[in-house]
Write a structure and sequence with these properties.
Structural class: mainly alpha
Oligomer: single chain
Helix content: over 70%
Largest sheet: none
Shape: globular
Number of strands: 0
Order of helices and strands: HHHHHHHHHHHHHHHHHHHH
CATH topology of the largest domain: Growth Hormone, Chain: A
CATH architecture of the largest domain: Up-down Bundle
CATH class of the largest domain: Mainly Alpha
Strand content: under 5%
């Protein structure tokens, strides 16, 4: 596993494992912040760079498309060429592109830098979890994954708060510039503390497989992202989805015939892998979809500013911090599938609480739902990730980690698209006839229209808020149903306990020649 540090007894793991975990958690925290910090800065970017709504959307989507498209390829490369190496490359890309984005003078440059940040994120994310499972023995691995996942949850929750503070006191570029010192510190810490590991049995890189994987994932995410705006019947939706299906079929065909495939089909088709991947994807669908809708409720119905809305969602991260460290002990007592299933049921309960919110109910019922939501996340996330990682041999840890990130990214994209579509449909059905299209399209448009109507607009605004509540109720119930389906899948498909990984292919000194050939 490592050639630059003394080895530890087999049942203990790497002697620096806890320090390494802190470094890996810092890397994950850096990427997680970026998932939410940009949203707060978009209004300022629109004003100062004269960006259209389309350009703002591309600033968000450029990162997601590149990130999702390259994850599987990056995970495979990390197994072949070294996980530490790919982690450092990812940090350099991410930090360098962040610095350039901070001083962008036009929207095209900013969109391009967001794409480069997606490359960095795709390179570093799979390496973090892959390194973690190398340095921790099974006894401590799930606890380490719980801490790693908590760092990610904290980053996502604190992103809007950090972004709001930075934009309020500096300028929009500061939300990117803050990544640079964190990235530099992470690079130094990785170089000093983290051992290099790779798959000694890996052969040449499967270049055709990598290209097909990237095309399939990018097309799939693009089609899903376009869904909420254009609907199922638009060529902008089904065109990319058909392209993704064709590329995925060619990818499977290639992997079944390649001498050195990028993905071992026997690994990804195992029931344990499918069960963990499906449970993780459905968890992220329900979670991200519900939070997407809830954020709009906080800002448009309760009238919170983006910064206040960010602070309002922090309790979910606090609940994760409390429950995630307890998850390994609970899993040992009642088993993986039961813990994950209970976590998803708790998650669904939080969404049902959100579905019952009245337009003027205030923050207290929102807080109750957030705390329940956080408890469900804390219970389910670590055992799901551990089950997926343990379904692959240790020498394929990078690919397994990339698979974990990929299913979460797909689940998140689907959650936003479908929850957003349900919200829009329920909202439009609850509005009176005769309103302009801008008012029927969103609550923000309806409130703007009502503001132009003088005193008569108050009743319209209230009616629009109640219509939004109808759409929110539909969205939350859909997300709750998805979480319950995930609970059933977890209970039926996950094992009661996670068996040890096959470690035969990687020994404590597994640093060999770098296989740079291309198949």
């Amino acid at each position: 596993m490592t050639a630059d540090a003394p080895t530890a007894p087999e049942d203990q793991g790497h002697p620096r494992r806890w320090a390494i975990l802190i470094v890996l958690s810092l890397c994950v925290f850096l990427v997680a912040i970026d998932n939410t910090v940009l949203n707060v800065a978009l209004p300022s970017i629109s004003e100062q760079l004269h960006a259209s709504n389309r350009a703002l959307q591309w600033m968000v989507d450029a990162y997601s498309l590149v990130f999702a498209g390259l994850l599987m390829t990056a995970g495979s490369l990390s197994d072949r060429h070294g996980r530490k190496k790919l982690l450092i490359v990812g940090l350099v890309f991410f930090g360098g592109a962040s610095a350039a984005a901070a001083f962008a003078q036009d929207t095209g440059t900013l969109i391009g830098m967001r794409g480069l940040m997606g490359i960095g994120g795709a390179f570093l994310m799979p390496s973090t979890l892959a390194i973690l499972v190398q340095v921790f023995h099974e006894r401590d691995r799930q606890r380490a994954i719980a801490i790693w996942g908590t760092a990610s949850a904290l980053g996502i929750a604190l992103g809007p708060v950090i972004g709001g503070v930075l934009v309020s006191h500096f300028w929009w570029g500061s939300v990117f510039l803050v990544n640079v010192p964190i990235g530099i510190a992470a690079v130094v810490a990785v170089a000093v503390l983290v051992p290099e590991t790779r798959d000694l049995g890996a052969r040449r890189t499967d270049l055709p497989g990598a290209l097909l994987s990237t095309l399939a994932m990018s097309s799939l995410v693009y089609g899903v992202v376009q869904l909420s705006e254009h609907g199922w019947y638009s060529p902008q939706v089904w065109g990319p989805l058909v392209g993704a299906a064709v590329a995925a079929a060619l990818f499977v065909w290639r992997q079944a015939r390649a001498e050195s495939p990028m993905v071992e089909l026997s690994m990804v088709l195992s029931p344990r892998f499918i069960g963990a991947a499906l449970s993780g994807a459905l968890l992220m669908f329900a979670l991200v979809g519900s939070v997407f809708v809830l954020t709009q409720h906080l800002q448009l119905v309760l009238g919170y500013s983006p910064l206040r809305a960010g602070f309002a969602t922090v309790p979910v991260a606090l609940a994760v911090m409390v429950t995630a460290p307890l998850s390994p002990a609970i899993t040992q007592r009642i088993g993986v599938r039961t813990t994950v299933a209970i976590g998803l049921v708790v998650l669904a309960t939080g969404m049902v609480l959100f579905a019952t919110l009245a337009p003027r109910a205030g923050y207290r019922p929102v807080l109750a739902g957030l705390l329940v939501l956080g408890c469900g996340i804390g219970l389910a996330t670590a055992p799901v990730s551990d089950a997926l990682m343990s379904s692959a041999p240790k020498e394929k840890a990078g690919l397994a980690s990339a698979s974990n990130d990929t299913v979460q990214e797909l689940g998140s994209a689907l959650g936003v698209a479908l929850a957003g579509s349900a919200l829009a449909a329920g909202y439009a059905d609850g509005l009176p006839a005769g309103l302009p299209e801008s008012a029927r399209r969103s609550l923000a448009g309806a409130l703007e229209f009502a503001g132009l109507q003088g005193p008569a607009g108050g009743a319209l605004a209230e009616h629009a808020r109640y219509a939004f509540g109808s759409g929110m109720r539909l969205s939350m119930l859909i997300c709750a149903g998805v979480a319950l389906i995930g609970a059933v899948c977890a209970f039926l498909m996950l094992p009661s306990c996670v068996p040890p990984q096959d470690e035969s292919a990687e020994t404590p000194a597994a640093v060999g020649p770098d296989p740079l050939g291309v198949a």
